Amino acid sequence: MEASSLAGGFADPSQESARAFRGIMRAMSCPGSICDITGATPPAPLSVAAGSVLVTLCDHDTGVHLAGRTDTQVVRDWITFQTGAPLVEAEMAQFVLGCWEDLNLTVLATGSPEYPDRSATVIVEMPALEATGHTLVGPGIKDTAQLNLPDLAALQNNAALFPLGLDFMFTCSGQIAALPRTTKVS
Amino acid sequence: MSDYNFAYLDEQTKRMIRRAILKGLAIPGYQVPFASREMPMPYGWGTGGVQVSAAIMTPQDVFKVIDQGADDTTNAVSIRRFFERTAGVSTTETTTEATVIQTRHRIPEQALTEDQILVYQVPIPEPLRFLEPSEVETRKMHALEDYGLMHVKLYEDISAHGAIATAYAYPVKVEDRYVMDPSPIPKFDNPKLSMPAIQLFGAGREQRIYALPPYTQVVSLDFEDYPFEATKANHSCGLCGSTDSYLDELIVDDAGGRMFMCSDTDFCSARRAKGHTGTSGAPFQEEAV
Fold first, then answer.
1. Where residue A26 sits, what CATH number does that domain have?
2. Which residues of A touch B32 (CB under 8 A)?
3. Paired strand residues for A96
4. Are B40 and B111 in contact (CB under 8 A)?
5. Is B205's Cβ below 8 Å from some Cβ in A?
6. Residues forming beta bridges with residue A135, ordered by sequence position
7. Considering only CA atoms, which of B146, B162, B123 is closest in space to residue B45?
8. How far apart are CA A97 and CA A49, in angstroms?
9. Cβ-contact A40, A12 below 8 angstroms
10. pLDDT at res. B200
């Protein structure tokens, strides 16, 4: 483990995680809205937003899976030290982190009819977040919202699984947007 | 304040509650199990709401608590003081100034905005519980979207009373999927459940959290020939004269005398401050400080 793993967490965990969570909650309750989330400074290639989500929500109770380019020893060490979360296979993960091209959504947990909440939350590192592109409709959206999504068909398939399905968080530098399974995209 | 972690709960507990809140927002109306903690107040006093409030609160928040619409009851005052002491947040009784409002059994009369969060204290989160005591069975009923029993219950209301007699905790269907207990708010408040604010529901004893994102479609269950009606006492507020707010009935003497007044104390005093006076109300006077 390198010394860099020990830095980059919240300086004031209780207050910074509270503020970060409000950003996450706003994003998840208003799909398509782009919210600020900062506080953590994770090692590359993680964005500030993705790192802040991890330290806000993950601990020894939550399996984390790193997909593709994010699965480096430096990132593993950082997550282990900062959150204590076990790093697990994709099938077992509550939180999955990666770029869109590196993710295999078909193996992730989508919950069961009795417990649809036992599903993975996917943190997708994005090159950019913009309120343009695809149209979003659903709970949390007054009329319609716009967001640049990485893939339409996969997200439409996910929405069709409701009430099962995956919930997505899109992160880019210090910003986050979210797409829960209830949002219909076109 | 330094004697406690910010907002009382430890960070691991808050993370667990925060994860449950996010899943609740992603599956509106579904009750997410969570590991409810012992709080320094008894079950039934809002331990679920307090845990949800503690998990979402930031130091910048302005916190309001109402109990049946009133800011000045024991429950509301003690929860407000709890967060003043453990989180150092400022508190208010004015609905428009608050960013987080914890409520027991009412939705404020003042329409809420996108910047506000409403946290409900929930005693029994399971709408089917009085019809089916088994958790295994009710969970299966939600999974199969098997809500016929609830309609039978409403039908039996009609056959026994000539109308749907359920007056509070009136069941709703969320986004055409989950039947949800809106907590024991009067059915007068049901039409307000589709609102711009985030709504979070916490049941401490029953260990459930559920949520409604802004603008979620919430429909009160009814029948075509017996449509849902948001009812209230057919009077006006004795203090402020309001005809469209939810009213409490008060017995005022030993001879059966009674008066009606707004259950939402902030709404009522704001109206009186603007010069509205009801039949039993004295003209508004600034409080001597």
1. 3.40.50.11310
2. 117
3. A65, A122
4. no
5. no
6. A146
7. B123
8. 12
9. no
10. 98
Q: 3-state class of B179 per DSSP?
A: strand
With respect to residue A186, please indicate whether it lies within any of the assigned structural domains: no
Q: At what angle do helices B47-56 and B74-86 cross, to 10 degrees?
A: 30
Q: Per the domain annotation, does A42 fall within a domain? A: yes
Residue A27 in 3-state DSSP? helix
Residue pLDDT, tens place only, A112-157:
999 999 999 999 999 999 999 999 999 999 999 999 999 999 999 9
Closest chain A residue to B138 measured between Cα atoms? A114
User: Which of B6, B58, B198 minimises the CB distance to A29?
Assistant: B198
Residues B74 and B125 in one domain: yes
| Active-site residue, from B46, B48, B204, B240 | B240
- Interface contact B141, partner A, CB < 8 A: no
Q: What is the pLDDT along chain B (289 residues), one digit of tens a residue?
A: 457 899 999 999 999 999 999 999 999 999 999 999 999 999 889 999 999 999 999 999 999 999 999 999 999 999 999 999 999 999 999 999 999 999 999 999 999 999 999 999 999 999 999 999 999 999 999 999 999 999 999 999 999 999 999 999 999 999 999 999 999 999 999 999 999 999 999 999 999 999 999 999 999 999 999 999 998 899 999 999 999 999 999 999 999 899 999 999 999 999 999 999 998 877 777 665 5
CB A59 to CB B12 under 8 A? yes
Q: Is B241 a catalytic residue?
A: no
Q: What is the distance in angstroms between the Cα of A107 and the nearest Cα belonging to chain B?
A: 19
Task: Please check whether residue B267 lies inside any domain of the structure.
Answer: yes
Domain count, chain B: 2
**Domain extent for A86:** 3-181
Q: How far is B41 from chain A (nearest CA, A)?
A: 22
B216 shares its domain with B237: no
Crossing angle of helices B47-56 and B11-26, rounded to 10°:
100
- For the question of residue B240 being annotated catalytic, the response is yes
Domain carrying residue B238 = 232-280
pLDDT in the model for residue A4:
78
Closest Cα in chain B to A84: B12
Distance between CA atoms of residues A131 and A134, nearest Å: 9
b/e per residue, B43-69, with b = 16+ CB within 10 A?
eebbbbbbbbbbbbbbeebebbbbbbb
| Residue A170, domain member (yes or no) | yes
Total domain count for chain A? 1
CB contact under 8 A, A117 and B211: no
Contacts of A40 in chain B (CB under 8 A): none
Whether A154 is in a domain gets the answer yes
CB contact under 8 A, B215 and A121: no
Same domain, B124 and B203: yes
Q: Residue A175 half-sphere exposure, CB side, CA atoms within 13 Å?
A: 12
